[in-house]
């Protein structure tokens, strides 16, 4: 036990710093989510992404604390990233949608309840946003059809926010 006394103290310090950092990030994400009108579930999802990133960072720091050499860590990470890279290439679309979901959390100008028009030449959509998830938007068309639209495509297409007055007029007809 006394052999690893310094390492255990450094580990406790790293753990406290990362827990405080995680709490700050989660609170900040929740405040941003409330300010932009997103759901709590989306804010929690972004918080989980941050937690996973911090855990991986903690593992890297712990390896250095317990005496791992840079060359050993480089070898491990290059091997792991090679395997992950091959796997992610196979699921590129999913990774693209998740990344788009994170981007949309921080800078998507539309929120649940807004009626939008997506200018897609193959499948134009005019619908109300029912939910914004990690992989796709859930949209409800005027005829009641439910449309799921991938997050990566919504960031690539022109989108128009339909005016509130136009929505009220169309509901009268």
Explain what the structure shows.
With 173 residues, this protein is α+β, with helices and mostly antiparallel strands. It has two domains: 2-90; 109-172, SH3 type barrels (Roll). It contains six helices and five strands; from the N terminus they run ααααββββαβα. Helix 1 (5-36) packs antiparallel against helix 2. The chain is elongated, with a radius of gyration of 22 Å.
Give a quick precis of the structure.
The chain has 173 residues and is of the alpha+beta class. The chain contains six helices and five strands, in the order ααααββββαβα.
List keywords for this structure.
173 residues; alpha+beta; SH3 type barrels; 2 domains; 5-stranded antiparallel beta sheet; 5 strands; 16% strand; disordered C terminus
